[in-house]
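Q: what does this look like with 6-O-phosphono-beta-D-fructofuranose bound?
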Amino acid sequence: MSQPTETVTSTVGDVSKNSTSVDPLQDTEMFPQTDGAPVEPASKDLEGVTDSYKAPNGANGQPKRQKKIAVLTSGGDSAGMNAAVRAVVRQGIARGCQTYIIREGWEGLVRGNNTEPTPAATAATSPALGPTKSVSFSALPPSQQLSLSSGALDAEDGSFPHGVNYTDPDWIAPLSDAPLSFGYGELLKDGAGEGDIEELSAHGAMGLAIADKEDEKGRSLKGRYIVRVGWDDVRGWLGEGGTLIGSSRCPSFRTREGRMKAAQNLIKYGIDCLAVCGGDGSLTGADMLRGEWPGLVQELYENGQIDDEQKEAHAHLNIVGLVGSIDNDMSMTDLTIGALTALHRICESIDSISSTASSHSRAFVIEVMGRHCGWLALLAGIATGADFIFIPESPPKSDDWETEMCDLLKSHRVVGKRKSIVIVAEGALDRNLKPIKPDYVKQILVDRLGLDTRVTTLGHTQRGGKPCAYDRILPILQGVQAVQALLDATPETPSYMIGIQENKITKVPLLEAVAQTQAVAAAIENKEFDKAMSYRDSEFREMLQAFQISSSLAASNHVPDNKRLRIGMIHVGAPAGGMNAATRQAVRFCHNRGHTPVAIYNGFEGLLDDNVSELSWLRVDTWTTRGGSELGTNRTLPSHDLGQVAAAFQRHNIDALLVIGGFEAFHSVLLLEQARKAYPALQIPMIHLPATLSNNVPLTDFSLGSDTSLNALVDACDAIKQSASASRNRVFVVETQGGMSGYIATLGGLAVGAVLIYTPEDGISLKLLQQDVEFLQKRYTLDVKGKSEGRLVIKSEKSSHIYTTETLTKIFKEEGKEIFDARSASLGHTLQGGVPSPLDRTRAARLSLRCMQFLEEHAVPNAQHLKGKRHYSIDTACMIAIRGSKVVYANMDEVLKVTDMKLRRGTDEWWADIKRLAEVMGGRSGLMASSSRG
Ligand SMILES: Nc1ncnc2c1ncn2[C@@H]1O[C@H](COP(=O)(O)OP(=O)(O)OP(=O)(O)O)[C@@H](O)[C@H]1O
Ligand SMILES: O=P(O)(O)OC[C@H]1O[C@](O)(CO)[C@@H](O)[C@@H]1O
Ligand SMILES: [Mg+2]
C-alpha cells in the first residue's frame, strides 16, 4: 500500500483553505449555544466519570495510562452507524479500554460538556458488582492494555483478513472488571437529547410526566456531549436505524478555532483514541484534526489551557475512520456503512412503483440520493431492472441525451414492455455539467414519447429504517478493526480508514482515501468522466457495464454470425435468491451479443425430458425481483444418466453451459468435466455460479442467496427478540437451515447480537452446554431487575443429533430456574427468503456477466458438429468465486482441493473465526473470562 504522496497532501491542504467559507445551506447550525460561554479551561477532573480505575504499572514502575476510546458519528446519518458505535464500544471494553460516545458528531466534540451529570448519573450500574466498582486492570498483563498486534496483518497489501485472533483466550478483558452501564444508553435509545428536566418540572404535572419518562433516575443528556458508556449502554442498538448518538453537519469544525475546542475537550477527558464514523467530509475533518494536532496542543499549552502533564500525555492523537454514508462515495472501499440499507429502501420503493407502472403502462422518473455519486442509482437500476439511469460519473454519451434516452425507452416499448423506469441520481449531470432533473426528464417522456409519466422523489425515506443484515455485519467487523488500528497506532503510523474490498476488511491511509475521493469530484468538474470512473472501484465499473448490457437492445454489439453460440442455462439444487437475476443477466448478455440463450427447465431431469427452450429478451424482464427459481430446480445430478445428458446437449446444440446453484451445481460441473473424455458432447466450456442460502459451496466466500437468507433471518430474529424482551428474562433458541455449514447461523448470530451460536462445525457437548448455562445465569443475574433483555441463541439445524433444538430449549428452561425462561422457534424454509435482497440481485448480475464473458471467450460455435475434434482443458470447467479481495475463476481441481465432499462444505471456511467474534460481542467471552489471571 503506497503512502500518501506530497501531491496528495497539498490537495487536502487546498480543501481546508477553501472550506473556511461555509455553505450555509449545507451546514445549518443545529445546536444553539446553550450559554455562549467559551469552553472552560481543561481540567484533569474526569467530570461525570466514576470509575477510579487503578492503572497498572508500566515497566518503569510508573502507572500506565489506560487507553480511552471515543466514537462519534458525523455527516448524513446512515443505517449501521449504531452497529459501528456498539462494536467500537464493546471491542474497546473487551480490550481493556475506557469508552466514550460523543453526541452530535463534531458539534458535540467542539461543545464538550457544559453541565455536570446529576448525582444519580454518576453511579455506574453493574448490579452484581455494586454501583461504583473500580476497574482493576492490574489483573491483565500490560501487553493487553496497550498496543496489541493483530498478527493477521497482510504485509503484502496493508490489509488484513477478518481476524484479530479471537481464539486467543488471553485476548479478552474480563467483562466483570468494568461497569456494565453508565445509564445513558437507554436515554440515547429512547431518543432523549437536549431535554431539561428542571424546566419541564416547572411546567407542572404534565412536564413531570414527560421528564419521568426520560429517565426515572433524573439523568439528563442536556449539555453533555462527551459521555462515558459501558457494555450494556449499547445493548439493543444493532437493529436501530440512523444514529442514536446523533449526527450533524458542523460549520465550526471547519475552522481551526473549532478544531482547537475539539482538541481541548479530547484532552480534558483524557481521550487519546478517536473513531469517526461518517462520510468523506467527516473523514476529511478527522484527517485535518490529526494533521493539526501537534500545533493545537502547543497552542493550548501556551495559552495555559492545558498543563505540562496533559501536553506530554496527549502529544499524539490516534484517529481511525469508519465510512458511514448512504452515498457509497468514498474511494478505496467497496462499500460504506449504510449504503446497502439505503439500496434496500430504494428497491422496496421501486419494486412497488413497478407494479403500478406496469398496471397503467406508465413511465416513472425516480430520483434517488447521491450528491456526487451514482452508486445508489446504478445499483438500483440493476436491482430493479430499470430502463435508463442518470449518474454523475458517467453522463449519457451524447450531448443530445434526450434522444438517446427516448430511443432506448422506445426500443423497450417496441418489444412489448409495458412500463418504463428511469432513475436519476440527485447529482446527475450531462456531459456539459448541466444538472439533469426529474421534472425535465418527465417532460421529455411526455412530449416525445407520449408516455403517461409520474415523478417520485424518494428523499429521506432512503436514509431511514432499520439496517439490513450486511449493515450490521460490516460495521461490526470494521468497528473491531478500527479499535485494533487505534491500539496499534504509533506517532509514525498514518491515520487509517477501515474499508472493505470484496470480502476483505482493509485499512488504507485516510489521507489517500480522502484525496482519491476528492479526485473523483475534480475529474467530474473537469469533464474527465473516464478518469472519474477509473477512480471508482472495479465493481462500480462492472456494474455499469452489466446495466448497459441488460438494458440495451441495439444490435451494435453483436458478434459475427460465425461466432454466435447457443448457451445453456440450468438451475441445480435448492432455490436461492438471485438465481433468476443471474439468469436474466445471462439472457440479456446473449441478446446483446447475438447469442442464443437456451433455458433448461427443471434441472438435469428436465434436460433428459427435453424441457428446453429459448428465452426472449422480454420474458426475463421482471426476473430481478423474483425469488425462487423461474427455471425450476432440483437436486438430481447428471450422474443420474451421463450418457443421456450428453445426448441431450448434442440434441439441443449446446455450445456452452451456465450452471447456477449450490453444492449440487458444483458437483454437477465436476461430474460433467470428469465425463468429458467419455462423451465428446461434453467438450464444451462450463461454469458454475454459486447460489445457495447455506453458503456451503467450497472456495467462494459468498453464494447468491446467502444475503437474502441472512436478511430473512434478521427480520425473523428481530421479531422474536422483541417478543423475548417483552416477556422479560426469556431466551429463544432459533433454529436455522444451512445443512452441514454454520454460515447462516454464525453470520446471522453476529447480525442479531445472539449470545450463543451452535454450528455443525463446532458441534455441541455436555461440557459446552454446562458453560453456556452458567453464562446465561451470570448474564441474567447482571441485568437490572425487571429490565432483562430477550436473548437469542442461534442453532444451525445439524449442530448435533442428540442436542436437538427441543432438547436444548428444555435444558435451558430447566437450568434457568427462576432466573430465565426458554422458548424455541424454527425458521425452516422461510430462510430461502421471498424477494431477493438487492445485494443478491446486483451480485447476481455482475457475476453472471463475468460467467458469460468466460463462456464467450472459451466456446466455439456449433460445438456438437465438431465431435471428437475439440478437447477442452480443465480450466474451462470452472466456478466463479469471490475469494478474499478478488473474483476468481477456479477450475474443478482447485475447488476439489478445498472441498469436503462428505460433509458437503469447504475445508477453509473464511468465517470460522467470526463465531469467536460473535461470542465476544455477545458478552460470553468477557463474562466467562477470569479476572484473576495475571
Ligand atoms: N474540509 C473539512 N474540514 C474540516 N471539517 C470538515 C471538512 N469537511 C467536512 N467537515 C466536517 O464534517 C462534517 C460533515 O461533512 P459532510 O456534510 O460533507 O458530510 P459527510 O461526512 O461527507 O457525510 P455524507 O456526505 O454522507 O452526508 C461537516 O459539517 C464538518 O463539520
Ligand atoms: O439530510 P441532508 O442534510 O439534507 O443531506 C442530504 C444529502 O445527504 C446524503 O444523504 C448523504 O450525503 C446525500 O445523498 C444527500 O444529498
Ligand atoms: Mg459526503
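Residues 559-704+836-900 form a domain with the Rossmann fold fold (CATH 3.40.50.450). The first strand starts at residue 68 and ends at 73.
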